[in-house]
Amino acid sequence: METSGARNITSNNKKQLEMNNETLEKMKQLRLFGMYDAFRTNLESSVKESLTTDQFISVLVASEWDDRRNRSVERTIRTAAFRYKASLEHIDYSIERGLDRNQVHRLAALDFIKEHKDLFITGSTGTGKSYLATALGYQACQNGYKVLYVNTAKLMGQLKLAKAKGTILAELKKIERVDLLILDDFGLQPFDPQSRVTLLDIIEDRHQKRSTIVTSQIPVKEWYDIIGEKTIADAVLDRIVHHSIRVELFGESMRRRNSKIENVFL
What we know:
With about 270 residues, the chain is α/β, with parallel strands linked by helices. It folds into two domains: about 80 residues, no CATH class; about 180 residues, P-loop containing nucleotide triphosphate hydrolases (Rossmann fold), CATH 3.40.50.300. Helices cover about 60% and strands about 10% of the residues. The chain is elongated. The C terminus is likely disordered. GO terms for molecular function: ATP binding.
């Protein structure tokens, strides 16, 4: 026979369960997904930690904070439109190609972004220019910076279409606002008159306000000829060369080298 005490315990447990489910539902509707996961995990855990009320609230808030930050980083990485994933931790320093570990570590601190400096990474094809730029881009995303990765020639083509549609000012404004712009494969295709003017607009908008990483197979001293048209080339280079940081890579293509190694084991 069920006693009144047993009935009260059952009733209280039922009310507690209903209240917890209601709380979870409200968290979901409020999009408090970090809190939702932490609270649900706590309810489902067979091992209950002895936490005070303020400690438990701290756990919930920390979980929400981490969840929002992680989702923000994921959005930033998607928006950056990287060509592939890269990580500073996976950079190979064992191959002689002019890559200085100490310099990379300094760049990883992202002070050049805080100081609105530009970074030039030059070297022959396959030496890891794009990988290093992308890895720094990922690092910037993880630290809350807005990043945009673009192939230079493709960007100029897209902006030509935008000009034809009458939307180029809006597109340039988007580029101006990103904290770090990565112009990959700079100078592989010559700049025509419209592209030169567009490049100057981009550089002028970002000068001493935002940072730009430029990767190129062409040495910086030859960029003048690549841009063409004396007045515009002078204006572009005057704004980006003097206060830039430079990384100059050399040696055999990493892709060619890795292909040779793979063939040895075939």
